[in-house]
UniProtKB/TrEMBL annotation:
The keyword Hydrolase applies. Gene3D superfamilies: 3.60.21.10. Its cofactor is Fe cation. The lineage of its organism: Eukaryota, Metazoa, Ecdysozoa, Nematoda, Chromadorea. It catalyses: a phosphate monoester + H2O = an alcohol + phosphate. The gene is WBGene00278618. Its EC number is 3.1.3.2. It is an enzyme of class 3 (hydrolase). This is Tartrate-resistant acid phosphatase type 5. Fe cation 1 binds at residues 63, 98, 101, 280.
Amino acid sequence: MLNYLPFSSLSSLSSISTSLPLSHSDMSPIYPLSLFIQFFYCSAQYSSYQNEVDSLRFFVIGDIGGIPVWEVTSVQKQVAKAMINRSKGVKSIINLGDNFYFTGVMSDTDPRFNTTFEDVYRDTAIPWLTIAGNHDHFGNVQAQISYTSKSKLWYFPSLYYNKVYQEGNISVEFIMLDTIELCGNSVDVQSGKIWDVIKDTIKKKWNGEKMKPKDPQKAEEQWIWLEKTLNNSKADYVFVGGHYPVYSISSHGPTQCLVDRLIPLLKKYKVTAYFSGHDHSLQHLESDGITYIVSGAGSRSDQSTAYKDRLKGRGITTHWHYPPFSLLHILSQLGVNDGGFVELNIIKNRTTVVYLNKEGAQKYASYLYPRWMAIPNSDLGKSIDEEL
């Protein structure tokens, strides 16, 4: 990244500059020292400015998987266009699962890799750090992992993994989990039939409080890996991503398995935020100093706030939720109403989290801070609107 010393910084140097002699004979003995001081000052100013402008940008999105009725929803196309229009300078896209509704893919040559992903997002031209959602686990998740070698965009090296980014003096680590292996699969719509889609929208079937992992040994191996990875992290910002939400006010609500096992780790290692999809909405929640961001509106949206009062009673603060009420809600699974995604703009001392709708219009924004910075409790979870 190219950085330039601004004019204001250059002009400030005049306060220490000396008058240049008219001839060599007029040079004072301290002239070389004066040049050295000016050079050192310029270098310090330039280095300081570099530190100020070092930045990293990412998108966070989930539930992009179209539907079998039509393999790309109308909302998905609009969200993709908005992302493409804002993608200059973005390092990666954090993709939180449910990549192919409703039953994943069966092989790495499945045509839906093209119709639902490549053809839609090719012009983003940046890597998609991908994990699986519950619907992907109805198919062959290993096929999605294998597809990594066939695509310039798709990055899914293993069921769970971490990725570190460094820009100047900023370090950011993403730890990507498979919450289905950790907690088990949910009871959800598994058919592409129109009536089943609408029926599931009207009456969600969720067992988030009762789920158990299919293979407890593999789940435990992932928990051990997660704590080791968190313990080893030296990054300024650490973001953990999984498909299932820890907390959500929308249709699916909280995931008890993650409440019991993940929250203690998020607190112990001062994780910056937890990202999830699963619920088809944008949410900003906070509890005990941990920020929870839901970004699952990549191809459709759900206005439900079914769990808001219940979570409020447990001390979880809901700062913001999107979308608002719409008469099209009954058709939300068809992807004809609204959608959106999240953008992270990261500098050394602060991250701005921007929540955007399907047209790419900013609806809300908030701040996050590096792990080493002591933030007053009054600032935790504070939105930019609240600050202004």
